[in-house]
Amino acid sequence: MLNxxxxxxxxxxxxxxxxxxxxxxxxxxxxxPHEQPVAIASLAKVMTAYLTLERYPLSGAQDGFTITVTAxxxxxxxxxxxxxxxxxxxxxxxxxxxxxxxxALLIPSGNNIAQMLAVQIAGSQTGFLxxxxxxxxxxxxxxxxxxxxxxxxxxxxxxxxDQLRIFQQTMRHPAxxxxxxxxxxxxxxxxxxxxxxxxxxxxxxxKTGSDSAAGGCLAFFTHVTVGGRRQTAVGVVLGxxxxxxxxxxxxxxxxxxxxxxxxxxxxxxxGASGADRRNAxxxxxxxxxxxxxxxxxxxxxx
Length: 302
Fold this sequence. Notes:
The protein is an alpha+beta fold. It is globular, with a radius of gyration of 18 Å.
């Protein structure tokens, strides 16, 4: 049960496989037992977004810095696409603002966009990885190691509790909350792309990740009413589902997320009337990959 610290106990419905973590309102973070570092696929992009917004904060309708896509970056996108990675189409000479880059990173989950941001922020991918891992240490993410900015590399590992910490930190930026709440996005060359989040229409905003090494992953927030008060439930599930079908993996992650939220809100109401139904969240925007394409890269066996 939820105790006086507002931590969760045995009644939380932890995922039957993989792991999960959740916090409700101002309560303490709770995580499934015996968590070990595992591949997190595109959830790695949350740290990439965080470092971008920490260096170049966006407020209101600001678009931030603008980059011009180089021939080398356009060629790299084509090479990544040939490997069946998750990419966002770009063209040499195309101009993209910081906001558009973050939309391309977080909604269609472009690995190539993560690489472009790494160079923009730190001058090189090596320098950016050093910043990612230094920030992880500073935030107390003791079980996290970043080896790439996109999560394509299965040696980028973390736990649900650690990913909840970075997700909460990134939520401090209104631009991040707005972007991960979008259902689709339209970009100059790539066109209109759809969000992979299986719960986007059910008022769960967040970032997905999926491949056969990581399973289905989802970092999310949703608004709930507990005892007549509107609060925010923030959670992470990792390692959901099996195989390499993106839709099935993410559907499993979505189911685990909903199962994580419902018991927590029921406990917190301590018998209050059925007012713990989530309040609707404003509409949201995203992108689309080819059918079944894993978010971070080609299908990999665990």
